[in-house]
Amino acid sequence: MNALDYFNARLEATISPMDFMRSKQMDPEKYFLIDVRNGPIHVRSVTIKDANVIHEQELPNRLNEIPKDKEIIVYCWDVWCNTAAKVAKSLLEQDYKVKELTGGIAAWQEMNFPVSDTTKVDNISDNCGC
User: Fold this and answer.
1) Cβ-count burial of 32 within 10 angstroms (0-12 exposed, 13-18 middle, 19+ buried)?
2) Which fold has domain 3-119?
3) Where is the Rhodanese domain (predicted)?
4) What's the angle, vertex CA 72, arms to CA 114 and CA 115, rounded to 5?
5) Residues 6+ apart with CB under 8 A from 79
6) What pLDDT score does 39 carry?
7) pTM above 0.90?
8) Is the confidence at residue 13, as pLDDT, over 90?
9) Given a cut of 70, is residue 12 above it in pLDDT?
């Protein structure tokens, strides 16, 4: 793979927080955002605003919650976490249209974009799968 092919593939497979915010503002119904992070509740209590929380290990049992008619955006912790990439690969193999949010929640928070506190939601599992 040459450099051009690499960067084209990278741009096809990812979306930056800024590009996601801009695109979502223009077309709010285009995306289905999923927080796929694993870990105990106390370390993942903050999520991107309006994100659907479906942890990586829960994915096979919750596919019915993920719409096939939207572009799926997955995110995890930061640039060193590969959980979102693993989930994206799994969803792509099942014919979903998927991109990874570059930088994960760390980049999102660094840009001071909107977040939610999920500790107020009763149905979040503390089974982190770690």
Assistant:
1) buried
2) Oxidized Rhodanese; domain 1 (3.40.250)
3) 27-117
4) 10
5) 102, 103, 104, 106, 107
6) 81
7) no
8) yes
9) yes
